Amino acid sequence: MIITTTPSVEGRTILEYQGIVFGEVIAGVNMVKDFMGGLTNVFGGRSGTYEEELMNARTRALEEMEQRAYSMGADAVVGVDIDYEVLGSNNGMLMVTASGTAVRLN
């Protein structure tokens, strides 16, 4: 399946719009990652633990969106947007949402 942020697929024609599709992931950041991230904040540098969690959440959200598009009979998702939000009373949860328009191509 083609997944793209553009509103169309070069060289292909959109035959039918299937609808808007979403993939949502809410991931909790555990105490070990919080501790390691805190050390990075103190000593500087990039937080590999948080970056890895962010990449995994984004990948899962895109995969979920793709599966929903596939179940609608689409063979592409155009206009994809990814949003991030911090949730929870102590901001201990990360929500990643991927959205786009499921389409059928020629």
Task: Report what the structure shows.
With 106 residues, this protein is α+β, with helices and mostly antiparallel strands. Helix content is 35%, strand content 40%. The protein contains two helices and four strands. The chain has helices spanning 31-43, 48-71, and strands at 2-3, 14-28, 76-87, 93-105. The chain has a four-stranded mixed β-sheet with strand order 1-3-4-2. The longest helix is centred in the middle third of the chain and has 24 residues, at 48-71. The radius of gyration is 17 Å and the shape is elongated.
How would you concisely characterize the structure shown here?
By secondary structure, the protein is an alpha+beta fold.
Helix/sheet category:
alpha+beta
> What does the largest sheet look like?
4 strands, mixed
- The N- to C-terminal Cα distance equals 13 Å
Strand coverage percent: 35-45%
Helix percentage: 25-40%
Quaternary organisation of the protein chains: single chain
* Total number of helices: 2
Uncertain runs with pLDDT below 50, 5 residues or more? none
Average pLDDT works out at 87
What's the arrangement of strands in the largest beta sheet?
Answer: 1-3-4-2
Radius of gyration: 17 Å
Listing every helix as H and every strand as E from the N terminus to the C terminus, the arrangement reads EEHHEE
